[in-house]
Amino acid sequence: MAPVEQDALAVREQLFHERVRECIICALLFASLYILCHFIITHFKKHTDFTAVHDDEDAAVNRIALGLCTFTLAVALGAVLLLPFSIISNEVLLSFPQNYYIQWLNGSLIHGLWNLVFLFSNMSLVFLMPFAYFFTESEGFAGSKKGIMARVYETSVVLLLLTLLVLGMVWVASAIVGNDAASRQSLYDLWEYYLPYLYSCISLFGVLLLLLCTPFGLSTMFTVTGKLLVKPRLLEDLDEQLSCTRFEEAAVSHRIRSGKASCWLNLDMEMLREQFFAVRSKRRKLELRHRASPWQRNLGYPLAMLGLLALTGISVLIVCFHVLELLLDDAAMPRGIQDASLGQVSFSIFGSFGAALQVVLIFYLMLSSVVGFYSSPLFTRLLPERQDTPLTKIIGNCVSLLVLSSALPVFSRTLGITRFDLLGDFGRFNWLGNFYIVFLYNMGFAGLTTLCLVKRVSWAVQAELIRAFGLHKLPLPVKRCQTRSKPC
């Protein structure tokens, strides 16, 4: 064999081994995420929906739907980890460029992971989750033989009709927006244009949902932190309050046991019970704070609040700086690339520390968006409950989390949280090149987050000062105004 042919064969063998290695790594990563998501879903699912009878038709349908939900949740978790994993991989390659044991961590692997997440996100949103919902609600066509296949046929027909309806609506909307022959002709290309365009609309909805949920979630996290941790109190005698509360609880309990009131008061047992439960709850909170160590009372809550304030303030500063960059430099616009050149330059001006800060901010914004999503009045009913979540609610949660998580890379790059450009089809969204959309999005995030932060912090400080100086115990003045008919 000629030397040229040997070199070509060696190159083909190397490419083959690299591709096999990438497939094995991707399979192991997804299998790990799938197992983790399976335990999460089984922790929340309702046991009555998943019986142990293996030949039962409903149990088989529920197990199939459970598998599809687990797959979708694993894709959502993979979308959350996608951008942090890429940033960390770039920093590792920069720190150890010649290390033999990390040569598998290359641009081809990262690019393949981005493509797989994009593909599986499309599959889950367009096909798997609608199929799982219609499959659980189906009973088979009238007159057909009952069984799993009858439900599969009905679900397939309904899903086909729904797909045609959605694709037709997207085709009409895109043809109206781009009213030329070239844009209408490109819509006939289903795989190269149609599905990415449909996912672009879904991603835009997810990014807008993140914009609304994240500031609200940041405000909610301050409240949740205050409830979970022991808050320090100014000018407070905890022993005296606990003693008074115990005496009050004993007095109310004695009145309930006696069963009669004083000669000048009518005894309302229901009101006394409510008062007793309120006093007991207050006494338990005081005992919990009394048992807490001085470190927990004086350092735990302040450090947690300072951490939240620091992360929120850094996020707002980064977005404000990115707004200035958008006005001065077109390179600040989010864009997509087709080649992941890792290990060449850091994506932060502060090096590894800046990259680590970017990863922390990405996870922090995702957590705040999830908290804000489940705290909002529109979606609070989707909040899962331990061992009591029906299958339809699990499907709704998986779809919602997938929409939020798949928009997270675009969300982070649009706000300038990271400089890592979008890979694969994530960078092909049409609205990413619109300066006005990106600029208004950054301004909206900075304004809403600052407003929620100032409002929450100012109210908390005001309430604490009022409580510390005992102003909350003062009687409120009652104002009366006379009208022609009656006082108000």
Report on this structure:
The chain is mainly alpha-helical and 488 residues long. Helices cover 71% and strands 1% of the residues. The chain has helices at 3-44, 57-95, 107-137, 148-177, 181-186, 190-228, 238-258, 269-291, 294-328, 352-375, 391-406, 408-414, 435-468; strands at 336-337, 422-423. A two-stranded parallel ribbon has the order 1-2. The longest helix has 42 residues, at 3-44. The N and C termini lie far apart (104 Å).
Structural class given helices, strands, pairing? mainly alpha
Shape: globular
Mean pLDDT across all residues, rounded? 78
Number of helices: 13
Low-confidence stretches: 478-488
Strand order of the largest sheet: 1-2
